[in-house]
TrEMBL record:
Residues 1-15 have a biased composition (Low complexity). Residues 1-33, 316-343 are annotated as: Disordered. Pfam families: DNA_pol_A_exo1, DNA_pol_A_exoN, HRDC. This is Ribonuclease D. Residues 240-320 form the HRDC domain. The lineage of its organism: Bacteria, Bacillati, Actinomycetota, Actinomycetes, Kitasatosporales.
């Protein structure tokens, strides 16, 4: 058998079973029907007591109104636990769920794509101490499609109806079809968790997954993003600093309006309209109204508001204009490495190739084996100083970059070789 055949055989042996099999069974109704939405303190107290007395992991999900409302707050929280059934809680009517959180504090939470829901859950007092992320488990197990619907279908043989994922969940009252969809999202989460735990155990990856879940549960809330206006879509067209100042002033003005009105910023003024104004630098509101995004439907008061932001940017002293780019926190973009530091570029090429090969051997995504940012930072400033990198110094560097022990165990030797070979 050739080396390639041996690798293919090993991959096949540890790949998750994804046999298409029979057609999936449509899951149309929750087992106990659609539960009533919890909107009062008394109802919340009864649910809290029921979940405290129930057993086993608790499935948790949250629905936001992205694209409709300002921010990422939760507008519905779904929970399910054996012995308590499913609960749908309205966090607008019941904004403090810390009591419910305390009732399930020692319980493992099962979420799908946990990092998406944890920020909005923290805002209402819910913070897991232990969790199982079914999306991340699917990635580690080597599933090609890890959306909840695809995972439930491939692993459990049921088809979830996913037609309401992008609706405006701030709507009140919530329509019955939306509530059915929300309840079904947690209906099989614990079943999926159990099947994936068994799959990971068979592949020898369960402890890896547990390290990943623990890292998510213990991670602090991320700090606010610096200069978020720089992420305006189409920003690459804006070259001059004065134009960048227009983007900044319009972005900040739009954000204040969106926050005050509690609507998505894109519904107040589109990113494309911000960029158009920055490029044109209109001299007055009439000229602004002729630009795309500032048409006849926009009132004079709104036009004056946006034009005032443009004028503020025009009047800024040169010293207060934004810089062309932020001071980089870390290595420069890899595309410039060959010119700035050819040795670092060679290290990066060797390290990337080694990590990619190992990820393929383990049948998991490269970014889950080791984050690309960690690889870049390691290659730009390799540890070890004049003595050169060693497995000990490379391991310590990876820990400092936040790598988990299983990731270090799988990559430290090959990274040490890659870094040393280019010295």
């Amino acid at each position: 058998m050739t080396d390639a055949q041996e690798t293919a055989s090993a991959n096949a042996a540890q790949a998750p079973l994804q046999d298409p099999g029979p057609a999936p069974v449509p899951l149309l109704e929750p087992r106990e029907g659609i539960p009533p939405v919890i909107v009062t303190d008394d109802e919340l107290a009864r649910v809290t007591s029921a979940f405290a007395e129930a057993t086993g992991p608790v499935a948790v999900d949250a629905e936001r109104a992205s694209g409709y409302r300002y921010g990422q707050r939760a507008y519905l929280v779904q929970l399910r636990r054996q012995g308590a059934g499913t609960a749908l809680v309205d966090p607008v009517a019941c904004p403090d769920l810390s009591g419910l959180d305390a009732a399930i504090a020692d319980t493992e939470w099962v979420l799908h794509a946990a990092t998406q829901d944890l920020p909005c859950l923290r805002e209402i007092g819910m913070r897991p101490t232990r969790l199982f992320d079914t999306e991340l488990a699917g990635r580690l197990a080597g599933f090609a499609r890890v959306g909840l619907g695809a995972m439930v279908e491939n692993v459990l043989g049921y088809a979830l109806e996913k037609g309401h994922s992008a609706v405006d969940w701030s709507t009140r009252p919530l329509p019955e079809p939306w509530l059915r969809y929300a309840a079904l999202d947690v209906e099989l989460l614990v079943d999926l968790r159990d099947a994936l735990e068994e799959e990971l155990e068979q592949q020898g990856k369960l402890e890896w997954a547990r390290e990943e879940f623990a890292a998510i549960a213990s991670a602090p809330a991320p700090p606010p993003r610096k200069d978020p206006w720089r992420r305006t879509s189409g920003m690459h067209k804006v070259r001059r600093r004065r134009q960048m100042a227009v983007v900044r002033e319009l972005w900040l003005a739009r954000d204040a309006v969106a926050q005050r009105r509690d609507v998505s910023p894109g519904k107040v003024l589109t990113d494309a309209a911000i960029v158009e104004a920055a490029l044109a630098m209109p001299p007055h509101a009439r000229a602004l109204s002729a630009l795309p995004g500032y048409g006849q439907r926009m009132g004079r008061k709104q036009l004056d508001q946006w034009q005032a932001a443009v004028e503020r940017a025009k009047e800024l002293p040169e010293a207060e204009l934004p810089q062309q780019s932020q001071v980089p926190n870390g290595p420069p973009p890899p595309r410039s490495w060959a010119e700035k530091d050819p040795a670092a570029a060679a290290r990066l090429t060797a390290a990337r190739a080694a990590v990619t090969e190992r990820a393929e051997e383990l049948n998991l995504p490269q970014e889950n084996l080791l984050s690309p940012d960690s690889v870049r930072r390691l290659c730009w400033e390799p540890p070890g100083g004049g003595d050169g990198p060693s497995e000990e110094t490379v391991g310590e560097a990876l820990r400092g970059l936040g790598a988990r022990e299983w990731q270090i165990g799988q990559t430290v030797e090959l990274l040490t070789v890659a870094l040393s070979a280019t010295e």
